[in-house]
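C-alpha coordinates in:
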Protein backbone atom coordinates (compact mmCIF):
# COMPACT_ATOMS: atom_id res chain seq x y z
CA UNK A 1 0.00 0.00 0.00
CA UNK A 2 1.23 3.49 -0.82
CA UNK A 3 2.45 5.61 2.09
CA UNK A 4 0.56 8.66 3.32
CA UNK A 5 3.21 10.91 1.78
CA UNK A 6 2.84 9.21 -1.61
CA UNK A 7 -0.95 9.45 -1.47
CA UNK A 8 -0.77 13.11 -0.40
CA UNK A 9 1.54 13.81 -3.35
CA UNK A 10 -0.85 12.00 -5.69
CA UNK A 11 -3.77 14.03 -4.30
CA UNK A 12 -1.80 17.23 -4.94
CA UNK A 13 -1.19 16.21 -8.55
CA UNK A 14 -4.89 15.42 -8.99
CA UNK A 15 -5.89 18.83 -7.63
CA UNK A 16 -3.49 20.60 -9.97
CA UNK A 17 -4.74 18.61 -12.94
CA UNK A 18 -8.36 19.50 -12.06
CA UNK A 19 -7.39 23.17 -11.92
CA UNK A 20 -5.61 23.09 -15.29
CA UNK A 21 -8.59 21.34 -16.92
CA UNK A 22 -10.91 24.03 -15.56
CA UNK A 23 -8.60 26.77 -16.82
CA UNK A 24 -8.38 25.19 -20.27
CA UNK A 25 -12.18 25.15 -20.43
CA UNK A 26 -12.31 28.86 -19.60
CA UNK A 27 -14.88 28.19 -16.88
CA UNK A 28 -14.20 30.68 -14.06
CA UNK A 29 -16.58 28.87 -11.68
CA UNK A 30 -14.80 25.54 -12.18
CA UNK A 31 -11.42 27.27 -11.77
CA UNK A 32 -12.60 28.76 -8.47
CA UNK A 33 -13.90 25.39 -7.23
CA UNK A 34 -10.60 23.67 -8.08
CA UNK A 35 -8.47 26.50 -6.64
CA UNK A 36 -10.27 26.41 -3.28
CA UNK A 37 -8.93 22.90 -2.60
CA UNK A 38 -5.28 23.69 -3.41
CA UNK A 39 -4.19 24.88 0.08
CA UNK A 40 -5.23 21.50 1.52
CA UNK A 41 -2.38 19.90 -0.44
CA UNK A 42 0.34 22.06 1.14
CA UNK A 43 2.77 21.12 3.91
CA UNK A 44 2.96 23.83 6.53
CA UNK A 45 6.03 26.07 6.37
CA UNK A 46 7.43 24.74 3.10
CA UNK A 47 7.72 26.79 -0.08
CA UNK A 48 4.27 27.03 -1.72
CA UNK A 49 5.48 26.65 -5.30
CA UNK A 50 2.84 27.59 -7.87
CA UNK A 51 -0.20 27.21 -5.62
CA UNK A 52 -0.62 30.91 -4.66
CA UNK A 53 -0.18 31.97 -8.28
CA UNK A 54 -2.91 29.59 -9.44
CA UNK A 55 -5.33 30.65 -6.70
CA UNK A 56 -4.61 34.29 -7.51
CA UNK A 57 -5.39 33.62 -11.16
CA UNK A 58 -8.85 32.33 -10.23
CA UNK A 59 -9.27 35.14 -7.68
CA UNK A 60 -8.53 37.80 -10.33
CA UNK A 61 -11.23 36.32 -12.61
CA UNK A 62 -13.90 36.00 -9.91
CA UNK A 63 -16.71 38.55 -9.92
CA UNK A 64 -19.23 36.82 -7.64
CA UNK A 65 -18.73 38.14 -4.03
CA UNK A 66 -18.97 34.65 -2.51
CA UNK A 67 -16.34 33.18 -4.87
CA UNK A 68 -14.07 36.17 -4.45
CA UNK A 69 -14.36 35.97 -0.65
CA UNK A 70 -13.56 32.27 -0.57
CA UNK A 71 -10.66 32.67 -3.02
CA UNK A 72 -9.22 35.57 -1.01
CA UNK A 73 -9.36 33.34 2.09
CA UNK A 74 -7.75 30.43 0.21
CA UNK A 75 -5.02 32.72 -1.09
CA UNK A 76 -4.30 33.96 2.44
CA UNK A 77 -4.04 30.37 3.68
CA UNK A 78 -1.73 29.42 0.79
CA UNK A 79 0.70 32.19 1.71
CA UNK A 80 0.57 31.36 5.44
CA UNK A 81 1.12 27.65 4.79
CA UNK A 82 3.97 28.66 2.48
CA UNK A 83 5.77 30.50 5.28
CA UNK A 84 5.04 34.02 4.01
CA UNK A 85 2.30 35.32 6.30
CA UNK A 86 2.81 39.06 5.55
CA UNK A 87 1.55 38.45 2.00
CA UNK A 88 -1.59 36.90 3.46
CA UNK A 89 -2.78 39.85 5.54
CA UNK A 90 -4.38 41.93 2.77
CA UNK A 91 -6.23 38.94 1.30
CA UNK A 92 -7.48 37.82 4.72
CA UNK A 93 -8.67 41.34 5.46
CA UNK A 94 -10.57 41.46 2.16
CA UNK A 95 -12.13 38.06 2.83
CA UNK A 96 -13.47 39.19 6.22
CA UNK A 97 -14.80 42.46 4.77
CA UNK A 98 -16.61 40.63 1.98
CA UNK A 99 -18.00 38.01 4.35
CA UNK A 100 -19.50 40.64 6.65
CA UNK A 101 -21.80 41.73 3.83
CA UNK A 102 -22.88 38.25 2.79
CA UNK A 103 -24.49 36.87 5.97
CA UNK A 104 -23.48 33.30 5.10
CA UNK A 105 -22.00 31.49 8.14
CA UNK A 106 -19.92 29.02 6.10
CA UNK A 107 -18.30 31.83 4.09
CA UNK A 108 -17.75 33.82 7.28
CA UNK A 109 -16.09 30.81 8.91
CA UNK A 110 -13.68 30.46 5.97
CA UNK A 111 -12.81 34.15 6.08
CA UNK A 112 -12.23 34.14 9.85
CA UNK A 113 -10.07 31.02 9.59
CA UNK A 114 -7.88 32.80 7.04
CA UNK A 115 -7.74 35.93 9.23
CA UNK A 116 -6.57 33.83 12.18
CA UNK A 117 -3.84 32.19 10.13
CA UNK A 118 -2.66 35.58 8.87
CA UNK A 119 -2.54 36.93 12.46
CA UNK A 120 -0.54 34.11 13.99
CA UNK A 121 2.41 36.16 15.19
CA UNK A 122 3.40 36.64 18.84
CA UNK A 123 2.11 40.22 18.95
CA UNK A 124 -1.35 39.36 17.64
CA UNK A 125 -2.64 37.23 20.52
CA UNK A 126 -5.41 39.58 21.65
CA UNK A 127 -6.74 39.87 18.09
CA UNK A 128 -6.39 36.11 17.62
CA UNK A 129 -8.40 35.46 20.78
CA UNK A 130 -11.22 37.68 19.54
CA UNK A 131 -11.16 36.14 16.05
CA UNK A 132 -11.26 32.60 17.44
CA UNK A 133 -14.38 33.50 19.47
CA UNK A 134 -16.02 34.92 16.34
CA UNK A 135 -15.09 31.79 14.40
CA UNK A 136 -16.62 29.60 17.11
CA UNK A 137 -19.86 31.60 16.83
CA UNK A 138 -19.89 31.30 13.04
CA UNK A 139 -19.22 27.55 13.07
CA UNK A 140 -21.46 26.63 16.00
CA UNK A 141 -24.48 25.82 13.82
CA UNK A 142 -22.67 24.55 10.73
CA UNK A 143 -22.92 20.86 9.88
CA UNK A 144 -19.67 20.79 7.89
CA UNK A 145 -17.13 18.89 10.07
CA UNK A 146 -14.11 20.58 8.46
CA UNK A 147 -15.21 24.08 9.45
CA UNK A 148 -16.19 22.97 12.96
CA UNK A 149 -12.83 21.22 13.32
CA UNK A 150 -11.03 24.41 12.29
CA UNK A 151 -12.96 26.39 14.90
CA UNK A 152 -12.17 23.89 17.67
CA UNK A 153 -8.48 23.74 16.74
CA UNK A 154 -8.17 27.52 16.89
CA UNK A 155 -9.94 27.68 20.24
CA UNK A 156 -7.66 24.93 21.50
CA UNK A 157 -4.58 26.78 20.30
CA UNK A 158 -5.51 30.06 21.98
CA UNK A 159 -6.46 28.19 25.16
CA UNK A 160 -3.02 26.58 25.30
CA UNK A 161 -1.34 29.91 24.58
CA UNK A 162 -2.85 31.52 27.68
CA UNK A 163 -2.81 28.29 29.77
CA UNK A 164 -6.59 28.11 30.15
CA UNK A 165 -6.87 24.49 31.33
CA UNK A 166 -10.66 24.35 31.35
CA UNK A 167 -10.89 25.63 27.78
CA UNK A 168 -8.18 23.16 26.69
CA UNK A 169 -10.14 20.22 28.10
CA UNK A 170 -13.38 21.49 26.58
CA UNK A 171 -11.93 21.79 23.08
CA UNK A 172 -10.22 18.38 23.30
CA UNK A 173 -13.58 16.87 24.16
CA UNK A 174 -15.19 18.77 21.27
CA UNK A 175 -12.63 17.29 18.85
CA UNK A 176 -13.33 13.80 20.23
CA UNK A 177 -17.07 14.21 19.67
CA UNK A 178 -16.60 15.64 16.21
CA UNK A 179 -14.45 12.66 15.21
CA UNK A 180 -17.05 10.25 16.61
CA UNK A 181 -19.91 12.00 14.82
CA UNK A 182 -18.23 12.41 11.45
CA UNK A 183 -16.40 9.07 11.31
CA UNK A 184 -13.77 10.92 9.26
CA UNK A 185 -10.13 9.74 9.63
CA UNK A 186 -8.91 13.32 9.24
CA UNK A 187 -11.03 14.52 12.17
CA UNK A 188 -9.88 11.52 14.20
CA UNK A 189 -6.26 12.38 13.34
CA UNK A 190 -6.65 15.88 14.78
CA UNK A 191 -8.39 14.55 17.90
CA UNK A 192 -5.76 11.86 18.56
CA UNK A 193 -2.73 14.06 17.88
CA UNK A 194 -3.96 16.84 20.20
CA UNK A 195 -4.86 14.30 22.87
CA UNK A 196 -1.33 12.89 22.53
CA UNK A 197 0.09 16.35 23.11
CA UNK A 198 -2.02 16.75 26.25
CA UNK A 199 -0.92 13.33 27.53
CA UNK A 200 2.72 14.41 27.15
CA UNK A 201 2.05 17.67 28.98
CA UNK A 202 0.60 15.83 31.99
CA UNK A 203 3.32 13.13 31.70
CA UNK A 204 0.90 10.25 31.04
CA UNK A 205 3.30 8.26 28.85
CA UNK A 206 1.04 5.21 28.61
CA UNK A 207 -1.74 7.28 27.08
CA UNK A 208 0.78 9.21 24.99
CA UNK A 209 2.17 6.01 23.44
CA UNK A 210 -1.31 4.78 22.57
CA UNK A 211 -2.33 8.12 21.07
CA UNK A 212 0.91 8.55 19.11
CA UNK A 213 0.34 5.13 17.56
CA UNK A 214 -3.25 6.15 16.71
CA UNK A 215 -1.99 9.39 15.19
CA UNK A 216 0.43 7.48 12.97
CA UNK A 217 -2.27 5.12 11.73
CA UNK A 218 -4.84 7.84 11.14
CA UNK A 219 -2.30 10.03 9.35
CA UNK A 220 -1.62 7.19 6.92
CA UNK A 221 -5.32 6.54 6.48
CA UNK A 222 -6.30 10.19 5.92
CA UNK A 223 -3.20 11.13 3.88
CA UNK A 224 -2.78 14.37 5.86
CA UNK A 225 0.09 16.33 4.22
CA UNK A 226 1.63 17.26 7.61
CA UNK A 227 1.09 13.89 9.31
CA UNK A 228 4.77 12.95 9.13
CA UNK A 229 5.83 16.28 10.68
CA UNK A 230 3.22 15.89 13.43
CA UNK A 231 4.45 12.41 14.23
CA UNK A 232 8.12 13.49 14.34
CA UNK A 233 7.20 16.31 16.74
CA UNK A 234 5.34 14.00 19.13
CA UNK A 235 8.03 11.30 19.06
CA UNK A 236 10.77 13.85 19.68
CA UNK A 237 8.85 15.34 22.62
CA UNK A 238 8.39 11.91 24.15
CA UNK A 239 12.08 11.13 23.72
CA UNK A 240 13.01 14.31 25.57
CA UNK A 241 10.77 13.40 28.50
CA UNK A 242 12.19 9.89 28.79
CA UNK A 243 15.82 10.75 27.99
CA UNK A 244 15.82 8.32 25.03
CA UNK A 245 19.19 9.31 23.55
CA UNK A 246 18.99 7.00 20.52
CA UNK A 247 15.60 8.41 19.46
CA UNK A 248 16.77 11.95 20.18
CA UNK A 249 19.75 11.40 17.89
CA UNK A 250 17.54 10.11 15.07
CA UNK A 251 15.01 12.91 15.46
CA UNK A 252 17.76 15.55 15.57
CA UNK A 253 19.03 14.26 12.23
CA UNK A 254 15.51 14.36 10.77
CA UNK A 255 14.73 17.86 12.08
CA UNK A 256 18.07 19.25 10.92
CA UNK A 257 17.66 17.74 7.45
CA UNK A 258 14.13 19.07 7.04
CA UNK A 259 15.04 22.52 8.38
CA UNK A 260 17.93 22.80 5.95
CA UNK A 261 16.11 21.37 2.92
CA UNK A 262 12.99 23.53 3.35
CA UNK A 263 14.61 26.59 4.92
CA UNK A 264 12.46 26.54 8.07
CA UNK A 265 14.36 28.20 10.98
CA UNK A 266 12.07 26.92 13.73
CA UNK A 267 12.63 23.29 12.74
CA UNK A 268 16.40 23.82 12.61
CA UNK A 269 16.23 25.48 16.05
CA UNK A 270 14.35 22.48 17.41
CA UNK A 271 17.08 20.28 15.93
CA UNK A 272 19.66 22.22 17.95
CA UNK A 273 17.67 21.53 21.14
CA UNK A 274 17.49 17.83 20.27
CA UNK A 275 21.23 17.67 19.61
CA UNK A 276 21.87 19.23 23.01
CA UNK A 277 19.50 16.76 24.68
CA UNK A 278 21.26 13.92 22.81
CA UNK A 279 24.58 15.05 24.34
CA UNK A 280 25.93 16.39 21.04
CA UNK A 281 26.85 19.98 22.06
CA UNK A 282 29.11 20.61 19.05
CA UNK A 283 26.28 19.93 16.62
CA UNK A 284 23.94 22.10 18.70
CA UNK A 285 26.50 24.93 18.65
CA UNK A 286 26.89 24.66 14.88
CA UNK A 287 23.17 25.19 14.36
CA UNK A 288 23.08 27.97 16.96
CA UNK A 289 25.80 29.85 15.08
CA UNK A 290 23.95 29.39 11.77
CA UNK A 291 20.61 30.60 13.10
CA UNK A 292 21.66 33.28 15.59
CA UNK A 293 25.13 34.36 14.52
CA UNK A 294 23.86 37.89 13.99
CA UNK A 295 21.69 37.94 17.11
CA UNK A 296 18.07 37.05 17.76
CA UNK A 297 16.62 40.30 16.40
CA UNK A 298 16.77 38.73 12.94
CA UNK A 299 14.18 36.09 13.90
CA UNK A 300 10.95 36.79 12.00
CA UNK A 301 8.04 37.68 14.28
CA UNK A 302 5.74 35.07 12.77
CA UNK A 303 3.87 32.01 14.02
CA UNK A 304 7.13 30.31 15.04
CA UNK A 305 8.83 33.33 16.65
CA UNK A 306 8.46 32.15 20.26
CA UNK A 307 9.42 28.57 19.37
CA UNK A 308 12.52 29.68 17.47
CA UNK A 309 13.72 32.16 20.11
CA UNK A 310 13.09 29.89 23.10
CA UNK A 311 14.79 26.96 21.37
CA UNK A 312 17.88 29.06 20.66
CA UNK A 313 17.83 30.45 24.22
CA UNK A 314 17.72 26.91 25.61
CA UNK A 315 20.76 25.94 23.56
CA UNK A 316 22.56 29.18 24.42
CA UNK A 317 21.88 28.58 28.13
CA UNK A 318 23.33 25.08 27.88
CA UNK A 319 26.41 26.39 26.08
CA UNK A 320 26.71 29.68 28.03
CA UNK A 321 26.52 31.97 24.97
CA UNK A 322 25.90 35.25 26.75
CA UNK A 323 25.09 37.57 23.85
CA UNK A 324 22.30 35.26 22.68
CA UNK A 325 20.97 35.03 26.23
CA UNK A 326 20.91 38.83 26.57
CA UNK A 327 18.92 39.07 23.35
CA UNK A 328 16.61 36.31 24.52
CA UNK A 329 15.74 38.01 27.81
CA UNK A 330 14.96 41.27 26.04
CA UNK A 331 12.81 39.65 23.34
CA UNK A 332 10.96 37.19 25.58
CA UNK A 333 10.06 39.35 28.59
CA UNK A 334 6.98 40.89 26.92
CA UNK A 335 5.54 37.38 26.47
CA UNK A 336 5.94 36.12 30.05
CA UNK A 337 3.04 33.90 31.10
CA UNK A 338 2.51 32.56 27.59
CA UNK A 339 2.92 28.96 26.44
CA UNK A 340 5.37 28.05 23.67
CA UNK A 341 3.83 25.84 20.99
CA UNK A 342 4.83 24.61 17.60
CA UNK A 343 2.60 25.31 14.62
CA UNK A 344 -0.97 24.19 15.17
CA UNK A 345 -0.41 23.44 18.85
CA UNK A 346 0.90 19.94 18.10
CA UNK A 347 3.51 19.99 20.87
CA UNK A 348 3.86 22.03 24.07
CA UNK A 349 7.36 23.45 24.54
CA UNK A 350 7.04 24.94 28.01
CA UNK A 351 6.29 28.50 29.10
CA UNK A 352 8.23 31.65 28.31
CA UNK A 353 8.98 32.19 32.01
CA UNK A 354 10.94 28.91 32.02
CA UNK A 355 13.26 30.16 29.26
CA UNK A 356 13.71 33.50 31.02
CA UNK A 357 14.70 31.50 34.09
CA UNK A 358 17.25 29.49 32.07
CA UNK A 359 18.72 32.61 30.50
CA UNK A 360 18.98 34.57 33.74
CA UNK A 361 20.42 31.57 35.56
CA UNK A 362 23.08 31.04 32.88
CA UNK A 363 23.93 34.74 33.08
CA UNK A 364 24.32 34.42 36.86
CA UNK A 365 21.55 36.85 37.69
CA UNK A 366 19.41 36.76 40.80
CA UNK A 367 16.31 37.42 38.70
CA UNK A 368 16.43 33.72 37.77
CA UNK A 369 14.68 32.92 41.06
CA UNK A 370 11.77 35.18 40.18
CA UNK A 371 11.28 33.48 36.79
CA UNK A 372 11.71 30.04 38.39
CA UNK A 373 8.78 30.67 40.71
CA UNK A 374 6.61 32.02 37.91
CA UNK A 375 7.37 29.06 35.63
CA UNK A 376 6.74 26.56 38.42
CA UNK A 377 3.38 28.19 39.14
CA UNK A 378 2.39 27.96 35.45
CA UNK A 379 3.37 24.29 35.24
CA UNK A 380 1.55 23.42 38.44
CA UNK A 381 -1.62 25.10 37.17
CA UNK A 382 -1.76 22.99 33.99
CA UNK A 383 -0.44 19.77 35.56
CA UNK A 384 2.81 19.79 33.55
CA UNK A 385 4.73 17.73 36.10
CA UNK A 386 7.68 16.80 33.88
CA UNK A 387 8.30 20.41 32.95
CA UNK A 388 8.03 21.52 36.57
CA UNK A 389 10.50 18.84 37.66
CA UNK A 390 13.02 20.03 35.07
CA UNK A 391 13.12 23.36 36.84
CA UNK A 392 14.55 21.67 39.93
CA UNK A 393 14.95 23.83 42.98
CA UNK A 394 15.87 27.49 42.76
CA UNK A 395 19.56 28.19 42.95
CA UNK A 396 20.76 29.45 46.30
CA UNK A 397 20.47 33.18 46.14
CA UNK A 398 23.78 35.00 46.57
CA UNK A 399 24.04 37.98 48.91
CA UNK A 400 21.67 40.78 47.91
CA UNK A 401 23.12 42.93 45.16
CA UNK A 402 24.39 46.35 46.04
CA UNK A 403 21.64 48.90 45.53
CA UNK A 404 21.91 51.07 42.45
CA UNK A 405 21.81 54.80 43.15
CA UNK A 406 19.69 56.57 40.58
CA UNK A 407 18.79 60.24 40.11
CA UNK A 408 15.37 61.52 39.14
CA UNK A 409 15.06 65.10 40.32
CA UNK A 410 14.85 68.67 39.11
CA UNK A 411 17.91 70.90 38.86
CA UNK A 412 16.70 74.46 39.07
CA UNK A 413 15.89 76.00 35.71
CA UNK A 414 18.01 73.46 33.83
CA UNK A 415 15.36 70.76 33.77
CA UNK A 416 15.82 67.28 35.26
CA UNK A 417 18.81 65.16 36.22
CA UNK A 418 18.18 61.49 35.49
CA UNK A 419 20.30 58.33 35.47
CA UNK A 420 22.59 56.30 37.67
CA UNK A 421 25.43 57.96 39.53
CA UNK A 422 28.35 58.55 37.23
CA UNK A 423 26.14 58.38 34.12
CA UNK A 424 23.50 61.04 34.61
CA UNK A 425 21.92 63.04 31.82
CA UNK A 426 19.64 66.03 31.52
CA UNK A 427 16.03 66.00 30.34
CA UNK A 428 13.61 68.87 29.80
CA UNK A 429 10.72 69.45 32.17
CA UNK A 430 8.27 66.68 31.23
CA UNK A 431 4.99 66.04 33.02
CA UNK A 432 5.72 62.31 33.00
CA UNK A 433 8.84 62.86 35.13
CA UNK A 434 6.74 64.53 37.83
CA UNK A 435 4.39 61.54 37.81
CA UNK A 436 7.32 59.09 37.99
CA UNK A 437 8.83 60.90 40.94
CA UNK A 438 5.51 60.85 42.81
CA UNK A 439 5.19 57.07 42.28
CA UNK A 440 8.80 56.45 43.33
CA UNK A 441 8.19 58.39 46.54
CA UNK A 442 5.37 55.98 47.40
CA UNK A 443 6.51 52.44 46.60
CA UNK A 444 3.80 49.79 46.77
CA UNK A 445 1.07 52.43 47.08
CA UNK A 446 -1.75 52.85 44.58
CA UNK A 447 -2.19 56.44 43.43
CA UNK A 448 -5.11 57.38 41.25
CA UNK A 449 -4.33 58.84 37.86
CA UNK A 450 -6.46 61.81 38.84
CA UNK A 451 -4.30 62.54 41.91
CA UNK A 452 -1.13 62.05 39.86
CA UNK A 453 -2.36 64.50 37.25
CA UNK A 454 -2.05 67.23 39.91
CA UNK A 455 1.63 66.38 40.56
CA UNK A 456 2.90 68.36 37.58
CA UNK A 457 3.16 72.16 37.80
CA UNK A 458 0.12 74.00 36.52
CA UNK A 459 -2.25 71.08 37.18
CA UNK A 460 -4.47 71.82 40.13
CA UNK A 461 -6.55 68.97 41.55
CA UNK A 462 -9.70 68.39 39.54
CA UNK A 463 -13.03 68.43 41.34
CA UNK A 464 -15.20 65.46 40.40
CA UNK A 465 -18.87 65.96 39.90
CA UNK A 466 -20.67 62.93 41.34
CA UNK A 467 -23.25 63.27 38.58
CA UNK A 468 -20.47 62.55 36.09
CA UNK A 469 -19.40 59.39 37.92
CA UNK A 470 -20.93 55.94 37.95
CA UNK A 471 -19.84 52.37 38.38
CA UNK A 472 -19.17 50.45 35.17
CA UNK A 473 -21.37 47.66 36.56
CA UNK A 474 -23.41 48.04 39.73
CA UNK A 475 -22.85 45.75 42.69
CA UNK A 476 -25.95 43.63 42.07
CA UNK A 477 -25.08 43.01 38.42
CA UNK A 478 -21.48 42.09 39.27
CA UNK A 479 -22.70 39.63 41.92
CA UNK A 480 -25.09 38.09 39.38
CA UNK A 481 -22.30 37.73 36.81
CA UNK A 482 -20.05 35.95 39.29
CA UNK A 483 -22.88 33.66 40.44
CA UNK A 484 -23.66 32.70 36.85
CA UNK A 485 -19.97 32.02 36.17
CA UNK A 486 -19.89 29.59 39.09
CA UNK A 487 -23.01 27.87 37.75
CA UNK A 488 -21.50 27.51 34.26
CA UNK A 489 -18.22 26.12 35.63
CA UNK A 490 -20.17 23.63 37.74
CA UNK A 491 -22.11 22.47 34.67
CA UNK A 492 -18.94 22.08 32.62
CA UNK A 493 -17.17 20.20 35.41
CA UNK A 494 -19.80 17.43 35.50
CA UNK A 495 -18.09 14.03 35.18
CA UNK A 496 -20.44 12.68 32.47
CA UNK A 497 -19.35 13.46 28.89
CA UNK A 498 -21.09 16.22 26.97
CA UNK A 499 -23.18 15.11 24.05
CA UNK A 500 -25.00 18.33 23.19
CA UNK A 501 -22.28 20.24 21.32
CA UNK A 502 -24.52 23.25 20.63
CA UNK A 503 -25.24 23.64 24.35
CA UNK A 504 -21.54 23.25 25.17
CA UNK A 505 -20.64 25.98 22.67
CA UNK A 506 -23.38 28.23 24.05
CA UNK A 507 -22.04 27.85 27.60
CA UNK A 508 -18.51 28.47 26.38
CA UNK A 509 -19.55 31.67 24.61
CA UNK A 510 -21.59 32.86 27.61
CA UNK A 511 -18.65 32.18 29.96
CA UNK A 512 -16.23 34.20 27.81
CA UNK A 513 -18.70 37.10 27.58
CA UNK A 514 -19.24 37.14 31.35
CA UNK A 515 -15.50 37.04 32.03
CA UNK A 516 -15.01 39.99 29.69
CA UNK A 517 -17.66 41.99 31.56
CA UNK A 518 -16.20 41.14 34.98
CA UNK A 519 -12.67 42.05 33.89
CA UNK A 520 -13.89 45.33 32.47
CA UNK A 521 -15.81 46.13 35.66
CA UNK A 522 -13.08 45.31 38.20
CA UNK A 523 -9.71 46.85 38.74
CA UNK A 524 -6.70 45.98 40.85
CA UNK A 525 -7.62 43.70 43.74
CA UNK A 526 -11.07 43.02 42.28
CA UNK A 527 -12.47 46.40 43.28
CA UNK A 528 -15.32 47.73 41.19
CA UNK A 529 -14.26 50.36 38.69
CA UNK A 530 -15.93 53.72 38.52
CA UNK A 531 -16.17 55.60 35.27
CA UNK A 532 -16.35 59.27 34.42
CA UNK A 533 -15.04 61.33 31.55
CA UNK A 534 -12.73 63.16 33.98
CA UNK A 535 -11.22 59.94 35.33
CA UNK A 536 -10.80 58.61 31.81
CA UNK A 537 -9.03 61.77 30.60
CA UNK A 538 -6.70 61.60 33.59
CA UNK A 539 -5.94 57.91 33.01
CA UNK A 540 -5.06 58.44 29.34
CA UNK A 541 -3.06 61.62 29.98
CA UNK A 542 -0.99 60.09 32.80
CA UNK A 543 -0.29 56.89 30.87
CA UNK A 544 0.85 58.79 27.78
CA UNK A 545 2.99 61.19 29.80
CA UNK A 546 4.75 58.38 31.68
CA UNK A 547 5.28 56.39 28.47
CA UNK A 548 6.78 59.47 26.80
CA UNK A 549 9.11 60.08 29.75
CA UNK A 550 10.27 56.44 29.72
CA UNK A 551 10.96 56.68 25.99
CA UNK A 552 13.18 59.72 26.63
CA UNK A 553 14.99 57.92 29.46
CA UNK A 554 15.54 54.87 27.22
CA UNK A 555 17.36 57.03 24.68
CA UNK A 556 20.08 57.54 27.31
CA UNK A 557 19.86 54.55 29.68
CA UNK A 558 18.11 51.40 28.41
CA UNK A 559 18.69 49.49 31.67
CA UNK A 560 17.06 52.14 33.85
CA UNK A 561 14.11 52.47 31.46
CA UNK A 562 13.59 48.71 31.46
CA UNK A 563 13.67 48.57 35.26
CA UNK A 564 11.04 51.30 35.48
CA UNK A 565 8.82 49.62 32.89
CA UNK A 566 9.05 46.33 34.78
CA UNK A 567 8.05 47.86 38.10
CA UNK A 568 5.43 50.43 37.12
CA UNK A 569 1.73 49.78 36.65
CA UNK A 570 -0.42 52.46 35.01
CA UNK A 571 -4.15 52.73 34.56
CA UNK A 572 -6.98 54.29 36.54
CA UNK A 573 -4.73 53.52 39.52
CA UNK A 574 -0.94 53.59 39.23
CA UNK A 575 1.68 51.90 41.39
CA UNK A 576 5.43 51.39 41.65
CA UNK A 577 6.37 47.89 42.86
CA UNK A 578 10.12 47.70 43.57
CA UNK A 579 11.98 44.59 42.42
CA UNK A 580 13.97 43.05 45.29
CA UNK A 581 16.35 41.51 42.72
CA UNK A 582 17.24 45.00 41.44
CA UNK A 583 17.31 47.33 44.47
CA UNK A 584 17.51 51.06 43.81
CA UNK A 585 18.18 54.04 46.03
CA UNK A 586 16.32 56.86 44.33
CA UNK A 587 17.58 60.43 44.70
CA UNK A 588 14.37 62.35 44.16
CA UNK A 589 15.42 65.80 45.42
CA UNK A 590 18.73 67.63 44.85
CA UNK A 591 21.19 66.52 47.52
CA UNK A 592 18.57 64.44 49.37
CA UNK A 593 18.32 60.60 49.26
CA UNK A 594 14.98 59.06 48.38
CA UNK A 595 13.36 56.16 50.24
CA UNK A 596 16.66 54.25 50.38
CA UNK A 597 16.66 50.45 50.70
CA UNK A 598 12.87 50.49 51.12
CA UNK A 599 12.55 51.46 47.48
CA UNK A 600 14.16 48.27 46.34
CA UNK A 601 13.91 45.62 49.03
CA UNK A 602 11.15 46.43 51.50
CA UNK A 603 8.58 43.79 52.44
CA UNK A 604 6.01 45.41 50.17
CA UNK A 605 8.39 45.29 47.21
CA UNK A 606 7.54 42.75 44.53
CA UNK A 607 8.95 41.97 41.13
CA UNK A 608 6.17 43.93 39.49
CA UNK A 609 5.56 43.57 35.78
CA UNK A 610 3.65 45.94 33.65
CA UNK A 611 4.38 48.19 30.72
CA UNK A 612 2.76 51.62 30.51
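Residues out:
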Amino acid sequence: MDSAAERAAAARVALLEAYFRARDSGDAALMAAAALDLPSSQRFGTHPGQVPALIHEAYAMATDPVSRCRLAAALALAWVYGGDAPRAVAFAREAVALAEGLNEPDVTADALGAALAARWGPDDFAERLALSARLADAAAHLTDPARRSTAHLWRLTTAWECLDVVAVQRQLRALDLLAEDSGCPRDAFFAASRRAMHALVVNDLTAADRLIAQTAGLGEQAAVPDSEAVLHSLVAARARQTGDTATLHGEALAFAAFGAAEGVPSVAAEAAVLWLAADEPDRARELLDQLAGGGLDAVTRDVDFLLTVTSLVEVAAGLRVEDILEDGVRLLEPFAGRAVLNTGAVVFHGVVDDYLHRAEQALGRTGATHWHHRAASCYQRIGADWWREQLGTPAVRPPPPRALTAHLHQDGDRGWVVGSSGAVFALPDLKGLHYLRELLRNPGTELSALDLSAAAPGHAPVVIDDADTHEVIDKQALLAYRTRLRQIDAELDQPEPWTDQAELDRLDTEREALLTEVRAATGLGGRRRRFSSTYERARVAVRKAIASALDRIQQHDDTLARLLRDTLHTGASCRYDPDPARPVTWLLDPGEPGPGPRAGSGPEGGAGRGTP
